[in-house]
Amino acid sequence: MEKNKKKTLTISSNFKKKIDTSSISSTGKKSYSIEKKKPFRANKSYNRNNIPSGQNFNKDTKKKNFARKFVEQQATKEFIKKDNKPVGKSKLKLKNPIDKRDFKLTVSRALNVEEIEIKQRSLASVKRARLKEKKNKPDTEEKKEFKKVIREVKIPEQISIQELSNRMAEKSNEIIKFLFNMKVVATINHNIDKDTAEYIVKEFGHKPVIEDKPSIELGKKNAEFQGEVKSRPPVVTIMGHVDHGKTSLLDALRDSDVVSGEHGGITQHIGAYQVKTGDNKLITFIDTPGHAAFTEMRARGSKITDIVVLVVAADDGIKPQTVEAIKHAKAAKVPIIVAINKCDLPEKNISKIKNEMMQYELIAEDLSGDTLFVEVSALKKLNLDKLKESILLQSEILDLKASYSESARGVVIESKIDKGKGPVSTLLINNGKLNKGDFFVCGDTWGKVRAMINYEGKIVSEALPSMPVEILGMNNSVLAGANFIVTQNEDEAKKMFEFRKESKSEKVSVKDKTTLFDKDKKKDELNIIIKSDVQGSNEALKMAIEKIKHNEVEAKIILSDIGMINETDVSLAKASNAILIGFNVKPNREAKKLADEQKINIKFFNIIYEALDYIEKSLSGLLEPDIKETVLGSAEIKKIFKVSNAGRIAGSKVISGEIKSKSKARVIRDGVVVFSGEIFSIFKEKNQVKEVGTGQECGISIKDFIDFKEKDVIESYLSEEIQRSI
User: Fold this and answer.
1) Of 290, 156, 311, 149, which Cα lies nearest the Cα of 236?
2) Residue 517 counted as domain residue
3) Residues 248/339, Cβ–Cβ less than 8 Å
4) Which of 124, 139, 198, 203 matches a 20 to 30 Å C-alpha distance to 111?
5) CA-CA distance, 571 to 590, in Å (whole number)?
6) Percent of the chain with pLDDT over 70
7) Closest CA relative to residue 375, chosen from 404, 349, 403
8) What is the pLDDT of residues 503-515, one digit of tens each?
9) pLDDT: is 6 or 581 the higher one?
10) Can you tell me the mean pLDDT for 456-469?
11) Which of 12-16, 81-85, 161-165, 683-687 has the least mean pLDDT?
12) Burial class (CB in 10 A: 0-12, 13-18, 19+), 527
């Protein structure tokens, strides 16, 4: 250790007298370290005070000592110069050779002068120091416990795990882990239902709040009307059996002629009209179809009405659709007025009709009941005013009122797609006032009222309660019977539409899988594409087709829509091998051209039962025909002959009936059929004959069969295919 130590030279300044600079020129006691050369090891600590004053040195020794002292002094000066840096100079410690650029002032040097001088610690070093500090630090300090923030979490009908974690301010992987423990495998993008989300929120210690549905309730009628409340015209639905004169009666009330324009004299749409009475009071009439196929339309007509006028023909009495109309009216809890039509006919029987009505709890006033019966004639226009008075009287009893200033609410009576106008809907206003330019939500769509056309075909700017109007401006066509409501603005309409879309997508139909592995016989399917003019007809046709049931074949509707037949429909019919039916619609030019090219037969119908008859016939064509066999006769083989040209011939005797050439035959051996084929030829006494009678002997050859044996029976028969129908 001592060898490696630096040597210290001490210069003492205790002398008062001046010392010659040639010997030692140093003032004060200064210490510095230099490496001592080996020849000078003996003079480790040299002190002038320890030199004996009386001792004499020779000249050579003095010179050597002087030279050494001078060198040491020079070295000391240089060392001190470096140690004591001049004040005001740069404090930069230069390690490399001097370069002019090293003294150039830069931004970094101006901000941090000691940048070069100070060596920064590495991150790893800092980390190690912190860990060491943590280990050495005693655990006296108590950890701060943070109180959990309990949040109110809004839960919609459906929510993704990501969104739920954000609302709870919890980690999403914690929610996924929780679900995994519940044996539910989910990812961050999975949607969970309201109940599951509520359970998770409670488990994580938060407070679930079920999000309110949009405030607009479409199906409910307000018990208390707001704004300008007035009495409104009654909505009257005319119902009854087919061909009992409903449309004719309405024509007589309106002084118009609708019935002449109807195909086959059958109403196949719902029509809505307004009629003025003598004292300028309005009555809204809704005409419904009476044909058996239009059950859904009649049901819808009874739901949106205030009074039902049941039309019964005086010469025909009560029919199935009359009974159905009574049931619909009673289900809707609306009063019934019975209009006995065709009272001008000589074969009328009014008392019979009144007696028959009693079994349906419709008792006439003259029989001590409360049901109004009016005898009318649409053709002769008899008692029409009396019918109007009866309707107004019934409406006064009902005290029908509505607001004339609120936002409009209504119901869609009929819907169709017009070539020039787009989706068009016939609407009946229940309450409020509908203005042009209003935004609305209707069924599965929304839109803005672009134009309104009344029942007379005139464009109107506003629609009042109980007024039927045709509106333009829907984004898509809607189903008949859909609720209609006006919103405050476009954003609210879009919000309601999105909410309905989401709620509709949530309802997933789960099929019954209990009979999944049952032996299911595959049915032959008849693919059908239906295009009709209005939604109601489309719906009626679809329901009627679905009622056609058979064990072997079924009708499958692959497309049911409204509007003209286009190229897409023709292409779909070609691809799916479907029959294309147009009900009160025609194809456009392009579709017609494509149908001719692809050889697709488009069937057009105007009357519903004609369309149904065609579908039934088409389904019957898919049924396998019944095969009817007629046994002609049988022959027993007595002996077998070999003929060079014909092969083996069965020498037989006809035991019953007759054997015919080219007829079908089967070979029976010991009661078992060994071959079925066709009789190739019959020989009798070397002559070929067409048939052989009972008791006669002949030679029989059967096509593709030579393995005859004695006592085999050859049976001749004819098979006939009989076409089946549904």
Assistant:
1) 311
2) no
3) no
4) 124
5) 11
6) 74
7) 349
8) 655 443 334 444 4
9) 581
10) 87
11) 12-16
12) middle
Q: Rounded to whole angstroms, how far apart are CA atoms 431 and 420?
A: 30
Six-digit token string for 464? 């009042």
Quick one: average pLDDT of 524-546?
A: 83
284/276 Cα distance (integer angstroms) = 9
Return the DSSP state at 586.
Answer: -
Write down the pLDDT at residue 58: 54
Rg of the chain on CA atoms, in Å: 55
Alpha-carbon span 692 to 660, nearest angstrom: 7
Dist. CA 702–CA 635, nearest whole Å: 13
CATH of residue 278's domain is 3.40.50.300
In 3-state terms, what secondary structure has residue 299? helix
Domain with residue 595: its CATH number is 3.40.50.10050
Q: From 395, 393, 394, 425, select the one nearest 411 (Cα to Cα).
A: 425
Phi, psi dihedrals of residue 654, rounded to the nearest 5°: -75, 120
Q: Assess whether 248 and 380 both reside in one domain.
A: yes
pLDDT by residue (tens digit) across 108-151? 666 665 555 555 678 898 899 999 888 887 654 555 556 778 88
Among 338, 392, 343, CA closest to 361: 338
Which helix (H) or strand (E) element contains residue 113? none
Q: How far apart are the first and last CA of the chain?
A: 121
In the structure encoding, which two tokens stand for residue 629, read together?
Answer: 């066999």
Contact 677, 703 (CB under 8 A): yes
Q: Tell me which residue range forms the domain holding 371.
A: 235-400
Among left, alpha and beta (phi > 0; psi -120 to 50; other), residue 403 is: beta
d(CA 508, CA 367): 53
Taking a C-beta distance cutoff of 8 angstroms, is the pair 382, 344 a contact?
A: yes
Regarding whether 650 and 583 lie in a shared domain, the answer is no
Cα distance between residue 386 and residue 370, in whole Å: 17
Q: What is the pLDDT of residues 631-678, one digit of tens each?
A: 889 999 988 888 777 778 889 999 988 888 888 899 999 888 899 888
Amino acid at 416: K
Residues 691 and 681: their CA atoms lie apart, in Å, by 9
288, β-bridge pairs? none
State the residue for tokens 């495998």. 185
Domain count, the chain: 6
Q: Which residues contact 555 (CB under 8 A, 6 or more apart)?
A: 525, 526, 528, 545, 546, 548, 615, 619
